[in-house]
Design brief:
CATH class: Alpha Beta
Order of helices and strands: HEHEHHEH
CATH architecture: 2-Layer Sandwich
Number of domains: 1
Largest sheet: 3 strands, mixed
Strand content: 5-15%
Strand order of the largest sheet: 1-2-3
Shape: globular
Radius of gyration: 18 Å
């Protein structure tokens, strides 16, 4: 779809979600591989559309962590491990995170096929636009 006066707010939101999901796939590729399951926390994680698009782009199930202030909880978890309350982060995660894991959103086969076909175009667009971003910073 092209940007025009016919584009709706929902169309724009979908494009933002798809861009985030493609960037996530690109980043996971850069670090080696996509985890077997993706877990999300925070306000955006409440969006079924975002979870479906992310699951379909990564071809992995996505689950929401239903914990308020997940960043603060993560900091507290690291402190709890550091002071010896838990042996390691895996032990702490079993107690602090696993009880808050929500339902699984699985990839949509139709979307997964579409995103698999368009991912190469996303990567090419990212690479091609890098010189433009450098120009903006000079």
């Amino acid at each position: 779809m092209n940007l025009s006066t016919k584009v709706t707010t929902l169309d724009l939101m979908r494009s933002v979600y798809e861009g985030l999901a493609m960037a996530a796939r690109d980043c996971y590729g850069a670090i080696g591989s996509i985890p077997e399951e993706i877990r999300m926390a925070g306000g955006a994680a409440r969006s079924k559309a975002l979870k479906t698009i992310l699951a379909s782009t990564l071809d992995r199930p996505v689950r929401e962590i239903n914990r308020e202030e997940a960043g603060a909880a993560g900091t507290a978890m690291m402190a709890a491990v550091a002071i010896g309350r838990f042996d390691d982060m895996a032990d702490c995660t079993r107690v602090w995170v696993e009880p808050t894991i929500g339902d699984t959103v699985r990839p949509d086969d139709g979307l997964a096929s579409l995103y698999a076909k368009t991912f190469a175009t996303y990567v090419e667009a990212r690479k091609t636009s890098q010189p433009l971003w450098r120009m903006f910073h000079s």
